[in-house]
Amino acid sequence: MSRMHWKTSLAFPFIGFFLAAVSLLGVEFQQGELRKGTEQETSWYLSDSGKPGPVIMIVGGMHGNEQAGSRAAGQIRHWLPAKGKLLVLPRANKTGLDAGMRYIPNSPGELRDLNRNFPKTDGENQTRGDLAQEIWSLAKRFEIDWLLDLHEGSDFHQINKKSVGSSIIPTKGEGMEEAVTKALRAVNDTIDNPKKKLVRLRYPVNGSLARATHERLGAVAMILETTVKDQPLSMRVGQHRLMVHAILLHLEVLGEGSNRLAPARGLADDQVRIAVYDAGGTGRSSARKVELVLERIKDCMIRRIGPRDIRSGALSQFDLVVFPGGSGSRQAAALQKTGRAKVHKFIELGGGYLGVCAGSYLAARNYDWSLKIIDGRTVDTQKGHWRRGEGMVKMELTEKGRLILGDYPKVVEVRYANGPIFAPAGDDALEDFEPLAYFRTELAKNGARVGAMVDTPAILSGKLGKGRVLCISPHPESSESLHGIVRRAALWLSGRE
User: Fold this and answer.
1) Can you tell me the distance from the alpha carbon of 225 to that of 223, in angstroms, rounded to the nearest whole number?
2) Which of 25, 143, 216, 372 gets the highest tally of CB atoms within 10 A of its CB?
């Protein structure tokens, strides 16, 4: 039931709101809305190469507790097809994604699972529920040839057979076997543990969009599943991108080097592009806390990024990178020597670096594993003294600090959690750092020297080549009243302030 003829034109009784097309490098971009004017309103995006080729629909966020697929689709929508068309629906179950729940909130029990509401095998050719109907109509109106539906499982299928995590679940169809083989190879080459590698499973579940588009529309369809358990979001998003990229290369829709996290320059140039590191060495909630604060910046694009992304040169797509709390030494180990060199070069060429707590340790001058991007060394760290404690301390911004970070009261309280205590490193190859805030009180547990923390820099800035560095020892992202410090720091590092 496959269909390998490529359409060269489309009829356009479009669903929802339709925006005027914009073009870049010969690719035409269009956008519309499903369920417009309702709480379920969600955007779809079309990238049209203008050349004959397959129409490929990519869907993310069908289940609201599966973030990686939605985020990957949001990145893929910016890719530039060399032929054919990419139709991307990044946030299919928008209300579920907003609520962090699998199902459609406030839906009747029989309709709550969006991916069971499409036409079923041997049933009537109809959907259940308004949202499923509009997604289905979108697929039909664009006469899709391929469907890639991005999902996540709770566990690795090879470890727990009750979960479909880390798998590809395809239909039949011309070109499918080779596409699945190439997708599995692309992603599994990045996974060391054999039990965590992706495997091929059998046919998609009845009522799913993948099964329905194959059986009713003749499309080649598959569900791509990553695994939530014990894997950072950046890794799972990257796995989705790798699989989709391999399939699109197989179909000759993309050229080499097109697996991007952020849009090509020329698209969204007015946005501040921020990469937030969330992999090895990052605290469980650290990246998310920083991300939530930075999302309030107007015209801001945030992407989670991991060591593999950094080593591949992905930082060049961004204005600044943020390394949040956790363990600086573990962040360094995960980056490896190549990744650390990439971060260093990114700053030298004009990028910004924001280190919070562990990210500030990572920036320091005095460790074998550190980035050495600021002329500061940490003090009183021997014999576990770096574990000075966790709690509230007082911090005072300097005049320059208030100019860059906001006009805060003379002294503010801020959460501290074993952050670095800085002193000048005296490295002639680096410009002296400038204190933007000082600690005025301290914590001194676990034998830490009393008085060592008071009047030392809590926030400091420096330059490296054409780029800027800003290190924050405490955690202003943990106090709503101080969120502006983090946002202003990001804007300053990007050259917007």
Assistant:
1) 6
2) 372
Partners of 276 in beta bridges: 304, 322
With contact defined as beta carbons under 8 Å apart, do 452 and 334 qualify? no
The amino acid occupying position 420 is: P
In residues, how long is the chain? 497
Q: How confident is the model at residue 257 (pLDDT cuts 50, 70, 90)?
A: low
Per-residue pLDDT tens over the stretch 352-381: 999 999 999 999 999 999 999 999 999 999
Name the pLDDT band for 256 (thresholds 50, 70, 90).
low
Contact by Cβ (8 Å): 351, 314 = no
Written as six digits, the tokens of 181 are 């083989």
pLDDT for position 270? 83
Question: 311 forms bridges with which residues in the sheet?
Answer: none
Query: Residue 270 burial by CB count (10 A; 0-12/13-18/19+): exposed, middle or buried?
Result: exposed
The C-alpha angle 289, 245, 68, rounded to 5 degrees, equals 25
CA–CA distances in Å: residue 72 to residues 61, 165, 238: 10, 16, 7
Q: Which domains does the chain have, with CATH numbers?
A: 22-250 (3.40.630.10), 272-493 (3.40.50.880)
Rounded to whole angstroms, the Cα distance separating 327 from 145 reads 46
Query: How, if at all, do strands 422-424 and 412-417 pair?
Result: unpaired
- 88 pLDDT band, cuts 50/70/90, is very high
Task: Look at the alpha carbons of 175, 258, 342, 297 in this order and tell me if their dihedral is positive or negative.
Answer: negative
- List the 300-305 sheet strands across, edge first: 300-305, 272-277, 320-323, 352-356, 467-472, 457-464, 434-439, 390-397, 412-417
CA neighbor of 311 nearest in space, from 285, 288, 343:
343
Q: What are phi and psi of 344, to 5 degrees?
A: -60, -50
Q: What is the pLDDT of residue 117?
A: 97
Which segments of 112-267 does DSSP mark as H helices, in order?
A: 130-141, 176-188, 209-217, 233-250
Distance CA(154)–CA(415), nearest Å, equals 33
pTM to 2 decimal places: 0.92
Beta bridge partners of 414: 393
Statement: residue 403 has pLDDT above 60: yes
Kindly state the DSSP code that residue 188 receives in the 8-state scheme.
H
Instruction: Report the run of H or E that residue 415 belongs to, with start and end.
Output: strand 412-417
What contacts 456, CB < 8 A, 6 or more positions away? 379, 421, 422, 423, 438, 439
Please report, as a single letter, which amino acid is at residue 301.
Answer: M
Q: What is the mean pLDDT of residues 159-181?
A: 97
Residue 55: helix, strand or coil by DSSP? strand
